[in-house]
Amino acid sequence: MKWSNLPEPVLLQRSFIFGLTGIILGTLSLINTQFGLLDAPMGPLNGVSLLLQFFGLSLAVMVLRKRKLPQEFKEKSQIMILVLGVALLFFVLSL
After folding, report:
1. Which of 2, 3, 25 has the alpha carbon at shortest distance from 14?
2. pTM
3. Structure letter (DSSP) for residue 5
4. Phi-psi bin for 6: left (phi > 0), alpha (psi -120 to 50), beta?
5. 35 and 41 Cβ atoms separated by less than 8 Å
6. Distance CA 62, CA 74 (A)
7. E-assigned strand segments in the chain
8. What does the pLDDT look like over 10-35, one tens digit per residue?
9. CA–CA dist 94, 11 (Å, integer)
């Protein structure tokens, strides 16, 4: 089954999960870089964090681009795009 054929609540839920996971991994990477808790390279973790945030953002945009979208899902998708966009900008600028 293609992702574009899934219902809007499922896509928004997956967008939230991917975005939240990316934000958590990015925060862990920043904390480890700041305090030096683990002596491990943080580059791959930063990459995975940004990838998950981009994927969550793209799912929210996919929901917004659907035709005949109810107002409830349109608002949720717009909020998700705003939150993930700001988080992505924060993590890109903090690298």
Report:
1. 3
2. 0.93
3. G
4. beta
5. no
6. 11
7. none
8. 999 999 999 999 999 999 999 999 99
9. 29
